[in-house]
Structures
1.
Amino acid sequence: MLELPVLTILIITPLLGALATIMVRDQGDARQQDIAYRIAFSFALLTSALSLLTLYFFEHGKVGFQFEERASWIPQLGISWHLGIDGISVWLVALASLLVPLAMIAGRESVRVRVREHVVALLVLQSVLIGTFCALDMILFFVFYEAALIPLFLLIGSQRGEGRSQAAFNFVLFNMVGSVCLLVAILVIGWQGGTFDIPVLMTHKLSPQMQMWLWVAMFVSFAVKMPMWPVHTWLPEVHVHAPTAVSMLIAGVHMKLGTYGFLRLLLPLLPDACHYFAPLVITLGAITVMQSSIVAVSQDHIKRVLAYATMAHMGFTAIGVFSLTVQSIEGTVLMIFVQGMVSACLFMCAGSLYDRIQTYEMSRISGLISTMPKFAFVFLMLVLGAVGLPGTATFLGELLIMIGAFHSLPLITVLAGSVIVIGPVYFFSSYHRILFTSSTGREVASGADLPQNQLIAIGCVLALMVWLGVHPAGFFSTTDATVTQLVATVHLSDDAHALSIVGPAMGGVK
Amino acid sequence: MEALLVFAPLVGGALAFLSRPVFGFRHGSLLSVIALCCSAVAAVILANDCLTGTSHTTVLAEWFRSGDLKVAWSIRIDQTAAIMIVVVTVISALVHIYSLDYMHDDSRRDVYFGNISVFTFFMLSLVTADNLLQLYFGWEGVGLSSYLLINHWYNRNSANLAAIKSMIVNREGDYGFCFGIIAVAFVFGSLDFDTIFAGIPAARGVMLDFAGIKIPALTLIGIWMFIGAMAKSAQIGLHIWLPDAMEAPTPVSALIHAATMVTAGVFMLVRLAPLFQAAPLVLDFVTIIGAVTAFVAATTALAQYDIKRIIAYSTMSQLGFMVAACGVLATDAAMFHLITHAFFKALLFLGAGVVIHALSGEQDIRRMGGLARTLPVTVLAMAIGSLALSGIPGFSGFLSKEAILGAIYAASDRPSAAIAFSLLVLTVPLTAFYSWRLMFVVFFGQSGRASHGHDQDHGHSHGTAWLMLATVVLLMGATLISGVAGRLFAPAAELPEMIGFLVIGLAAAGIVAALICYIFVPELPGRIARALPVLYRLFNEKWCFDSVYDRYFVKGAGGMIKELAYSVNGSWIENLIRNQVSVSVWNFARRSVSIQTGFIYHYAAGMITGIAVIILWAYLTQ
């Protein structure tokens, strides 16, 4: 194995790209903007390639963290630059690094002013997100986790438009409230364990009573990020006002930080509390799924529909994590990875549509199929992925999550599963409204079809979606060891049964 | 050979899609036809190997393995699958050839051929599945193809609506099917058919706990699975998509909405028969639903005027026969009827396609008449199809219908089977009546109506559709021999002679009644309709399913969703967070006044929040 600090290189590369891009003089000249874009895009692609190499060299079937590196940072407080990835985070690193070039492609047409700043912010975001998924030190994790808000805030607020600043403000405010809770919890855990190192803390046992409080504090933070009902109200407004690239990254990867937090911090560090609260989270997840699906049905704004659809999927991932079975957690990771890609591409389509007709309101769009047949095709394929048609990876994810959840709370699972029907209702009615229905007084797109680079990007995502849906053996062999061990840790916890209220239900058959 | 069978249509479909835009080749449709013929040949060879009763499974690849759940892609060919692959590939190949003429002038011809070829691929992966998940893969795949083909003429608003309706109603069924699969994975720990069937005895006592209510696992699985079958096989309640699906081009109706996809539900019931056997309560339900469907659909067909819709309701009615047979576990009889029905119904649809083609798109039988002289081959073909459908001895439908009625009669010590038997016996003359009503009105009856001038004006351009005629003739032959061939697969049990005579007598009575009403005394039907206005309206309005659904589900639930969306999305938490730093006391006072705003969604919001709190509290204190 190469003895290079692979993960540090992964984090640094986009930052170097950002530096290089800033060097370009930008005076609003189209040619200079083009150069800035090209430089940034190549660095983003380079990072993606590196992350795919990491994925390729990742050893299957090995328990524990790989590519670990550790450097002392603030030894007095037990804080270190500790990075490493396991079978779960390796996929999230890939997701974060792949989505940024996609977001840049989406912004190629629409972003006309401050191109340089736009791509620099995206590169910084790439670096920070990769860092979050690699961090094995809680303070490091928190720093990256919070740092992601800054480029996002700037990207949302920077473009002109009514309500933008309010949306950006709301976004940060909600996330900050969550972060305060998280920071307190992290400090308490660190103080109790004497270190902030996650692998070390995993062997350290906190008292059940303490776990409860810490769990609640951390959960609030991650639930805001996902977002779960009822702390979701920031989400639709942010999507409505955010530029396409930001919508893609929030839906594609930033929201996934919540689920990742569950997997990285809650499950291994607070197993007893996780057991205790599992039914609560599953119920909240089911409420999230149903509420967002129902709301999505009555929306007229494409981005709102997509935002609520993504939220429904996130509700599913919460159910998956807290079903605490191997299948459901593997399904969750698959779902996060593929659904992140798919929803990002859906937002890309919505953005391209806006570039052509200057509206997101479906009641004002119709009959697009005559002018944009390629758009119609890729949009249909993405919709099929989003509603979970068998043969796509999203279906496998959903199915595995529901199989796992059925073990603990069948009734709640059946309720959450209603999205099988409601999902197509809003997706297909949106699809029909913008592509087919032709009534007078509506605008028909007169612009060109999707550009070549977007088609190629979406095509790659679709190929990945089908490949992982039909033959995901490679995927499951990476996650298997990690997830099995994670589930075993949670279940082996001594006090689990004293506190557990899942116990009797889980005993069902086996 | 197995791979050729399943993947040739997929490759053919891909070629049809890609040949024009990628290779600039204009005859992609021909490639898909050739691929389909290869697949049909492979199917016949494979089925021939299976005649002896052997079955074999080829594992293609692993699908996924997660935890202790393993699922593989495989091709299982046993007797049931052998019947299905022959029916599917042969009819699909014929429909492909027929479409070469029928869709000749269509601008989206390549897409059409791509879609029906890919449909065939999905259908084959469904019938050759060795586990529930692959079955589900094919199940959803055929649903998707059906959706796309219904929407083929996307400029028609009615086609758009029909397509979305079929998608959503089918998803309702899939909801059931999907949870059936999940419950099977939970109870049996595997999705392979053999493992499931082997585990049934052990699973009899298993209960599922739904928040304190215990339900026997096998019953629940059976009901969920059957909901899936109900949507796909257009059983009453979830049937509303099938008549509307007639917006699709007619060859599609023949292939998908008569011969193959809609029989997938019956196929599933046959495949999972051991599972249903362990759930007698579900079997009663299946029997009753099947019989009621058969009866309601037949009565509806009496009062329709669209040639394709009449045949669609007839399909629904015959599917009811098959489902009812599955309800008494007469799977042989159900499969037998599935085969014979596939051929004669495809024949009827393709014949109707010739008529529609000749009349440049006219579908209302009131504007047809006397076509026997201009379309002599078609009238013969449709007559044979109608004779088979009515259940006249010597034709295939008689044997299979007799087998079903016999099996249900034999099981009639169960009350459900007794009810089903009487309903199905009532349906037999109705079937004969509506199918011959169609024959007499379209081909004989008074000529010289509007259609005729029309025919002479435009008919010539479509005059020599040789491929269409050839396929109709081939299907006519297939219909004639399928009664005999089907017997080989499904040897009939000893039936009381009474059943045979009953079927003959009732069918003949239906035909004679049609003859009287539409040839000898043409004013009689109008007089009957006026004498029984309530009944006529009920049948003509399709038992009001559509209007009731529209009023209570689409509009009612739609309105409720709007209100709910407004309320559960409420901004209280946003207010809480945004104002926590500011002076919140004043806000609180204002909010507590605004609680009594009188807006219904505010109350709904309160209720939903309350329910959520109670649920959470219940879990926390359990």
2.
Amino acid sequence: MSDLLSPSSAWYNDFIYSPLFAISLTLICFQLSQQLYLRSQRFALLHPTIVCAAVIALLIKLLGISYQQYFESSYILTLLLGPTTVALAIPLYQNAKYIRQLFAPIAITLVFGASFAALSAVGLAYAMGASNETLLSLSTKSLTTPIAMNVSELIGGHTALAAGGVMVTAVTGLCFGPLILRWLRIHDDRIWGFCLGITAHGTATVLAFERNSKAGAFASLALCLTGSFSAIVIPIVVSCLK
Amino acid sequence: MIKGLSILLFFQCLGELIRSYTQVALPGPVIGMLLLFAALCLRGGVAKSLQNASQSLIGLMTLLFVPATTGLFFLSAQIMSQWLAIAVSLVAGTVLSLIFNALLMKRLVKMHE
């Protein structure tokens, strides 16, 4: 199959290995995935990042491009995650006024909640016999993707597994978050947003903004605080354990 | 927009420099974020260009991590052999965290008010 689609002419190889092709492919697949997600009324398992990644994986396999090659050609997209991380300072600053209103509950939930999120995943995986590299990659599952990837790289985790773990967490939060919070009779928008934001970061923030702006602000605040807190604590804990 | 993006990149550079100079165990962009947050607190407001640049980038985030997420389909056999442990810990860990966080914060808010 891959022979059929990849004739060995030089111009063809130059083209499919170029950043131009990798980025066009990513942007086109992403838009189609987004359409599908909106048409399905935001069905969590059809989250555009996951569908898009799966389609790209299939296409590059058919075209005979290695993942490494694709990742390098599309690197400018990954590179932009750096300034995106820095940009999180703005929602953090804009929602910081809520911290003063509810300082003790926010601070305590942040410390215990963010630690519980990392430890529960690592603990379960450890009990089921996962390797050290896997455990390190799972420890960042409740951080927003750009921070998770940075931290994972720093502590020696597997970047793709860390990014994937964040996505699975996000989808789980989308599927079960609202149900669990209703079951626990959480009606306070502040708690609703903050708890989703701590556990399921970016996608949860979008979901919380759909509920109302107060829930959204608290989810966004939780995302930024969890990202900063865990980015500081996880590398320290890991270096102490090593 | 260009001005805002330059500010973001400047703080990322600052973060990376501090990281390589001090060998602190924190990713450069995260140091940049914390420094920018401190700068905003000192300045007492967000400039329009910075607001626009940050909103655009954050809006693009789901697209930006597509290349990294694609790697999930090319994991080594050694990691793939642990798929069950990975899936269970991610899903169960997330559900447990949500319950833990919600109950904890509900109790704390009640005590606070």
